[in-house]
Write a structure and sequence with these properties.
78% of the residues lie in helices and 0% in strands. The protein has six helices and no strands. It starts with a helix and ends with a helix. The chain is elongated, with a radius of gyration of 19 Å. It has a domain of 92 residues.
Length: 134
Amino acid sequence: MAQPRNLIGGHVISALVGVTIAKICPPVIWLTAPLAVAFSIIAMQITKTLHPPGGATALIAVIGSEKVKALGYWYVLSPVLTGGLILLAVALIFNNLTPNRKYPTDGRFSRTFKWVTAPTRNVISKINQKRRKR
């Protein structure tokens, strides 16, 4: 479920839904909170970007502090999109350092991001070769 499409798409779609619900509905938390989470889950399922933490992203847009609510649709770009991209970059680097792990599991994306981890893999393989020679 935490593939790049789900990670980025799920959070961004949920943030859009959450901000829209916060702007359209009256500020009644027992109404807006479940609506935001439910509609975000429906939107993620329709777009095939289901990512369970996305429901919390929609919830934060509705029940967050006044600073979060004041961001409006900027909440989608920062912190949601930028945070998701940072998380994806970290996941790509650390999960592809060794040849034993592969992220994302879809080969199309793995080929695209090999250049990021190739130098580190080369260093690790040289270290392992030196250890074996000893």
